[in-house]
Amino acid sequence: MINDTQLNSSSVVIVSGGGRGITAQCVIYLAQQYHCKFILLGRSQILDPEPEWSLSCQDESELKRQIMQHLATQNEKPTPKKVQALYQQLCQSREIKQTLSEIEKVGGKAEYCSVNVTDSQQVKATLRPIIQRWGEITGIIHGAGTLADKLIENKTEQDFDKVYSVKIDGLNSLLGSLEVNRLKFIALFSSFVSFYGNIGQSDYSLANEILNKYAYLLQQKYPKCHVVSIGWGPWDGGMVTPQLKQLFEQQNIKVIPQQTGAQMLAEELTQTQAKTPQIIVMSNPISPSPKLVTPQKHSYRLYRRLTLRGNPFVYDHVIGGNAVLPAMCALAWITNSCEQLYQGYRF
User: CB atoms < 10 A from the CB of 293, how many?
Assistant: First the structure.
């Protein structure tokens, strides 16, 4: 184990989305290795105490049956939607309690706060008393995220805001609630789709790519703070369903075992070598199979209309007082066009 001052028993780390799922598994591993203190933020609420009628139920079908009986006693119609909502609430509450228990068991300390991470005032008010008790925040792990997968023509503004806000507004909220210049590290949980894209995830791809760029800006502004945006490939669990796992296997992409991913996060946060603000963690790159190229010749004519207003970066490339398109940009566009026309081939 690396003995590094960035993570030790006196560290106090904020973790958004840390109560459940993959992020929670990372926190448990860090608690085991470094015995840190963690402030876990999430939207889910802990049912404490849990209703007596659900305490002994572990089986899904039995628990849903108990939920239907409970709703009936409350003179509520037990619709599938209501039953599923209450079932999810119970499962999420249990998972958060299990996370807190595991952290304590391995030597860490944690407190869970049900809060809207995009609401900076709410986050500030929530953190204030904990900081007074535990001391100054030393690190951030921004793992919160949500999906609203749809083809772009079917996406609504609400879909976009839902996915974008938790990533970007959530980060801004966290940064605005702390003395950022005193932080030792900021770890942003991005995704491999920010680089490769994915059908139905235009908003998710965009939000994660903004996180990547944010990491560079923060590292530049706070050079003493280790900032990294990790473009995780698919994990074994979390949002990766068995169907998705099978699809990744067909593409020769191995899912990341939870223990392995948690170890990689710990190594990244404690490494002392040159630090890179953006990394991608995957078993293999995604690349389409080359298409069969026929000997028949094809001609293509491509048009791109450029204006200074639409491409202000050109103002930084002035020759003789005139803004000039850099040749490298034109070459990159040509190369990209060829790769799009002949998928699977690379320049």
Answer: 10
